[in-house]
């Protein structure tokens, strides 16, 4: 039987607010619900439609490890111009889940200046753990891509988030040749306390990347919910960026 609950209060900011779309376009492309079943983390609801697909391997880790492992896959191997992907995940009380990819997320060339968009909303329950561990995003020449991720985490929940990209397809001579890459990550505690509000934007007109840094850029971001919560209580102001918990480097 099901144990605990996977739903917690929704954050002040929701995808319905973040997405400037009509109601039909706000219908999720995918949905994952994870709850305790017979004492173990289990998928109780799994849905995806084009251009998104979920793969749930049965032997990703030892059977003795209580974790649900899910791969996100795009039909055609990447995101094409005009694609809109919006999916959600709810990780119930005491559950553990890993969301990852099989390869880098490829964003194909923009046609007619259109932007490809991805929206992701996650809810993490009490004493639960959600690890977002994707391969990096690789934008092709002239690509335009924007992603927004909203996390609603219980005060004693756990979140591991990796957010990173490469500078392009080096073997084709595409180095920082895309037009736009934007990534926004907002974390809320118990639905109404902003813990971390972060946004990064890179493009052909971004001075910091125009011919100055030709190597790969890996933007890796991770947070300790307990640390961020303590920081909020001490300052009484939600931190925009925690320098000890985020890192940008060139290699």
What labels describe this entry?
251 residues; mainly beta; eight-stranded mixed sheet
**Biggest sheet statistics:** 8 strands, mixed
Which H/E pattern describes the elements? EHEEEEEEEEEEEEEEEEHE
Average pLDDT score: 80
Query: How many whole angstroms does the radius of gyration measure?
Result: 18 Å
In terms of structural class, how would the helical and strand content be classed? mainly beta
Task: Report on this structure.
The protein has helices spanning 15-18, 225-235, and strands at residues 2-3, 30-37, 40-48, 52-55, 68-74, 78-79, 84-91, 96-101, 105-107, 116-124, 129-133, 137-139, 144-153, 158-161, 180-189, 193-203, 217-221, 246-250. With 251 residues, it is mostly beta strands. The strands form four sheets. Strands 1, 2, 3, 7, 10, 13, 15 and 16 form an eight-stranded mixed β-sheet that branches. The longest helix has 11 residues, at 225-235. It is globular. The N and C termini lie far apart (49 Å).
């Amino acid at each position: 039987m099901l144990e605990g609950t996977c739903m917690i209060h929704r954050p002040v900011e929701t995808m319905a607010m973040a997405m400037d779309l009509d109601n039909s376009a706000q219908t999720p492309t995918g949905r994952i619900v994870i709850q305790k079943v017979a004492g173990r983390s289990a998928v109780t609801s799994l849905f995806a439609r084009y251009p998104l697909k979920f793969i749930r391997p049965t032997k990703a880790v030892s059977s003795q490890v209580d974790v649900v492992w899910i791969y996100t896959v795009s039909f055609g191997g990447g995101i094409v111009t005009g694609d809109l992907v919006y999916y959600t995940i709810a990780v119930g009380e005491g559950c553990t889940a890993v969301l990852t990819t099989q390869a880098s997320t490829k964003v194909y060339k923009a046609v007619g200046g259109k932007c490809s968009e991805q929206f992701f909303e996650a809810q993490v329950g009490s004493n639960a753990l959600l690890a977002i561990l994707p391969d990096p995003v690789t934008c092709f020449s002239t690509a335009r891509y924007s992603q927004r991720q909203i996390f609603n985490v219980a005060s004693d929940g756990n979140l591991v988030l990796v957010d990173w990209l490469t500078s392009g397809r080096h073997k084709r001579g595409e180095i920082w040749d895309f037009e736009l890459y934007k990534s926004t990550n907002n974390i809320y505690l118990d639905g109404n306390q902003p813990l971390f509000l972060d946004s990064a934007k890179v493009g052909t007109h971004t001075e910091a990347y125009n011919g100055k840094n030709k190597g790969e850029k890996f933007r890796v971001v991770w947070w300790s919910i307990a640390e961020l919560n303590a920081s909020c209580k001490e300052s009484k102001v939600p931190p925009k960026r925690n320098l000890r918990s985020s890192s940008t480097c060139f290699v």
